[in-house]
Design goal:
- The protein is of the alpha+beta class and 92 residues long.
- It has a domain of 56 residues.
- A two-stranded antiparallel ribbon has the order 1-2.
- It is elongated.
- The two termini are 32 Å apart.
- 1% of the residues are buried.
- This is DUF2470 domain-containing protein.
Length: 92
Amino acid sequence: MVRVTLRTLVSALASDELRAALAWLDGGTRPAVDDLLDRRDFELSIYHGQTRVTWTVRPVAFLPFAHRLGRELPTCVDRFTGARAPRRNGSA
């Protein structure tokens, strides 16, 4: 997501920031990936005039989904109803 957003903002950057952003997009992401694989955060900042945009990315550990067949689930699952589907054509 950082790459996508940075590509969107690149056209508005001044020349020094533009070169740095393009260098990061063109291979500079490898150290960021290495940091995440080593369970370290990484940050990327760009500047435009007096504005600074900073992305902070942190590694996450994903837990496997609970298998629902043949097992009793904890009672807390009944409290989560999930997200509602978006309305279509004005119907509820």
